[in-house]
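Project standup — Tuesday

K.O.: blocked on the structure for the chain from last sprint. Re-posting the sequence here as requested.
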Amino acid sequence: MVSGLPTGTRRGQVRRLPLWVVAVGPGLMVMLADTDAGSLITAGQSGARWGYRLLLIELLLIPVLYLVMELTVRIGLTTGKGHAQLIREHFGRGWALLSVGALLVSVAGALVTEFAGIAGVGRLYGVPAGLTVPAATVFLLAVVCTGGHRRVELIGIGLGLFELAFIAAALFAHPSPHELAHGLTASQPIGNSGYLALLAANVGAVVMPWMIFYQQGSVVDKQLTVRHLRAARIDTALGAVLTQLVMIAVLVATAVAAGGHRASLQTVGQLDAALTGALGTTAGRLILTLGLTGAALLASIVVSLAAAWAVAEVAGSRRSLDEKPSQARFFYCLYAVTVVLGATLVLTAHSLVRLAIQVEIVNALLLPLVLGLLVVLAFRVLPQEHAPGRTRRVALSIATGTLITIALLGVGLAFGL
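H.V.: unblocked you, prediction finished:
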């Protein structure tokens, strides 16, 4: 079997570091990437159109997100294998190709929204997409192709931390506590197709196929084991809370800007206008620039690596960030092709908001396949001492079942199916 794992020298270095230092990274990286340009736009449209009505679902999605991703981590730590590799070994190449195909659909949509977001930010300053998109492409290729796993993580997390500017935006917008409380308890307009489409989009934005492939591939590539489980859980829990706080912050800031009127966002410029209306021109634009650019660049790294790891796993090729491009040519070529393809496709995008919501709805439709395979795989491969107990199995089944049901019902009702 062709291995994508680091060298013995690196394993020795890893063992000498504290467990929490080694384990921190995959969870924060993938969770901050979860709040990508598409998710941020979806949250912004939710606040602009429906005020605080969708705030409750954002809070309820925190434990669901943690349960799913903690299971992903545990599978990776106990088996030492990536998600696509395990599907191939336990369900056959056909299921592996199907799952990777679903992943690539999600990745393509995500990358278009990331580059569209970057291009939209550039236009705020009069910089055309013909300059911002190629510059972002070169940056993304340089980060991954010239550094090891830890360096990529540090850069990625650093980019993702710019998203915290949105939390400051929500605080500076001074939302009314009374209106927030009312939004949490108000009846939901489940008869409105536009609301249901946004509900499905928000659910689709919380657990995306590439997240599972990336986080499992990352813990394997870092040579983490069950000794790192506790630290990896903390890493995942912290990331789950942070990513949903960012979503909530964007929703709140745009809801304040809308002032109770149903606004509709179609471009990054309109999102900029919403934030500057609540925060002032300088602060609003700075927060949007830092937060959206950081989120889009980080997510581009994560989704492209998820695709590269998954395809390389199915092909049985070398696939480690701690190997040079000359040693893992196929893996690095996959990453480069994915990034370049996303940059090229963005030229066909017209409305970033509409595109982002459509991408999240597609993610919602993929949830049955993605979560179904994950749960069944966990029951098959996890050793008894690390398998979910009865209580956790019930919680996991309820969480994933509810998530899938809400997503599919939301999509179905929104489109009159």
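K.O.: great, moving the ticket to review. The radius of gyration is 20 Å. DSSP finds 19 helices and no strands in the chain.
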